[in-house]
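#struct-pred

JT: dropping the chains for the assembly here, can someone run the whole complex?
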Amino acid sequence: MKVIRSMVLVSVDETSLARGAQDVFRAFLDEIEKFGLSDQIAVTTILDPGVHGDTPLVIVYPDSAVYAPVTVADVHTIVEEHLYKGNIVPSLLAMMHELVPEIGWMRGRRGALPVQKRIVLERVGVVNPESIEDYILYDGYQALAKALTHMKPAEVISQVEKSGLQGRGGAGFPTGRKWSFVANTPGFPKYVICNADESEPGTFKDRLVLEGDPFSIIEAMTIAGYAINAHEGYIYIRGEYPLAYKRIENAVHQAEAHGLLGDHLFGTDFSFHIHPHAGAGAYICGEETALIESLEGKRGMPRARPPYPTTYGLFGKPTVVNNVETLANIPPILRNGAVWYREIGSPKSTGTKVYTILGNVNFTGAIEVPMGITIREVIDIYGKGMKNGKKLKLVQSGGSSGSIAPASLQDVPMDFDSFRNAGVSLGSGALLVCNEDTCVVDLARVILRFFRNESCGKCTPCRIGTLQLYEIVSRIAEGQGTLADLDAMVRISEAMSEVSNCGLGQTAPTALLDILKYFRAEVETHIVDHVCPTGVCTALKHSLVSAPVE
Amino acid sequence: MDHENKDLDLASLVDKVVREHGATPDSVIPILSEINRTLGYIPAGTLPEIRRRIQIPQEGVFLADSHVYSAASFYQMFSLKPLGRHVIRFCESAPCHVEGGRQVIEALQKELGLQPGETSQDQKWSLLTTSCLGVCSVGPVFLVDDDIFGNVTPERVPEILARYE
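RK: done, full complex below.
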């Protein structure tokens, strides 16, 4: 029998691949072969848990030595010194400050950082995402086996309801209730759709799951299918995620080959099939009815609701649409029970949340923590503080459609209820951290340009409103604004929020309204004094005092 | 160029792609994606070809040319006109912007002499902007064809562009 004494993991996320991870991987195989170590050392790939600066990254177990960035030229030294002679190579180890906390602890800092609670990302970076055997070794398919052989569909739904799981796509709708709507709606066939059209700027949590633990989504969708009596599932993956698509496609094939997807699963009468589908670039397709239209081969334009997809979804049939992160919670809930899940997070917002931390902090990447952590904690502990010691000015939470929280709100617990009470949306979990050098007018301009580009054009308030808001903010940035513009923007924004057909138009003005609420003086300075206090708007003066006399 | 031959080629490409993805209305987007990927853009002539192969009046499946066109013109990854040999897609969303994206797009524009949306005279480069690509933790980010470049600074732009023939 082969005894593996050491394990080499090479990161193969998008950035690592772009920097030659494949060549590094091959070089390891070659060098290990040359030293005659092939039967003692396993080389495998991992998805880098939380992306950071220095990739590709190589971890050698059991020593937990993290080398980064590794080039082909370094491989010989690592194999000879570390794997052959047993000496870690200090000069090639990753710089501590370049490592995300999840890996950082390995370098002698175990326990120094607060531990993340990983449920959704539990296997990401640990298992080989292209191997179903690996997935099964790490508890994979236990939940489906339990559901199919020991539970009735109604019991599955009631477990999910009792867990308190809320949708992680942004709206926070109780998942169990959604499932029971569809289960109780007459009509056949029914469909399960996994919404993997993750397009909210700053959000890539779903990509990490799709690329790093694709089988969990396949298993979860199959469980959902059993619960609501559906036999077909679709995964709508945004076109900009080719690696995620490849991994999901591979996972579907492997699951089918192992009899874990297809007809008569676990010897029961239940059959389930999954079709991966690639999008073609449209933010609006994250909206569930637009996604359904797009799956049907049309423009991704949202439908009028009601009827909701739970009664009139794909091809007019009752359909469950769940976000990737939501689905990733399902197998652990069934495996460990609703009671276990309820103990994590806060009473009204159970479980964990994956956040992506971006912007002017020392660490950027993804973390998974229990609901209820504060913005200050995220920045200080996981973001390792503000970059270059600058001051925090604001955080945008939930992507471009999310709200702006000024520094004064950084101690509000981040869960659905507390955030709602503070007038902030939790949204998709993206946290864009901006320092004192950020100009709010410039930020609003970039955000509104995004919505102007992405509005699908179906309904008037959104199509015209996003354009008008963008033009007005641009005018202000160029020193041509008037104070009356501010009132006009509020009027347009309110109209958009109230009468737009879907979430895009309703939330497009969110950031702008927050900026006018918390940073009105800075905007007015642009208009009245023709001064941009941060100096970002180049058409304006930097400050009143230093301005040359004209 | 021999136009008749070109039309023949397009027709046989559409044949192959439609066969692969299925001649049903819900396959329109995968079909368009594949054509876009193969040719770098979707020639106007392929749209009625696609429609013709999917429409089966005998079975009650009707499809208008405008249906195929409306899908082809909606999605950002589709181009209805030819692009340069190399296509740059620069992320202009807020996270990349906050991390210094504006200086990078300015450097790209200066280096290429192109405005966003333009293709160079020699057909080598197209400079496009895109919404978030989901690799925000290494912003600013742009794509050259299928290669992702992250943590880009204005200084790195000439070196990156020089890698492409």
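JT: nice. The mean pLDDT of chain B is 92. Chain B touches chain A at residues 24-30, 32-33, 36, 67, 70-71, 74-78, 92-95, 97-99, 130-139, 146-151 (CB under 8 Å).
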